[in-house]
Amino acid sequence: MEEQTASDEVLLQALPQRPDLLAPLYDRLSGPAFGLALRMLGDRESAEEVVQEAFLALWRHAARFDARRGTVRTWLLSIVHRRAIDRLRGRAPVGELPTELGADPAPESDVGAQALRRLEREQILAALAQLPAEQREAVELAYFAGLTHAQIAAALGVPLGTVKSRLRLALGRLRTLLDAGEGSEG
What we know:
Elements: H1 8-14, H2 22-41, H3 44-60, H4 72-88, H5 111-129, H6 133-144, H7 149-156, H8 160-185
Helix pairs in contact: 2-3, 2-4, 2-7, 3-4, 5-8, 6-8, 7-8
């Protein structure tokens, strides 16, 4: 495998068998990860520690990655964001990685409500998959990783206005896709 030309996803999938592939992933993704951590924490040493922890988590949990849910970059940045928040709150990192839109807050006894929530989650994921990659990445960072517009701009290395435009276009497209999905069910 030529590490220089392989996608992040290909490198991550091969990582459990080839730990040496963490180096090219680090070379590609550590800049945005460090920028996000530094912006959130304001302390270089803490930012370096958070990035190190995030890459370790990426390596340990490479098998959990699901390309249908986003890019490796988005996943890593969401890990960095969560670890930085933990550090800001003075807590130890929980170690769990984001793998879904979110867990249900509590089990419900109403099976119908559970089925409806699962269907809604599947519809949202299907609609997200239809967005252009740049828009999907902005939505994932804003709504799933909880980043602000400024943090997304810093993480992606794009102007703030570009992030706002991507989000506005993405949300409009999602609304259209989800409304069309509701109309086709009835």
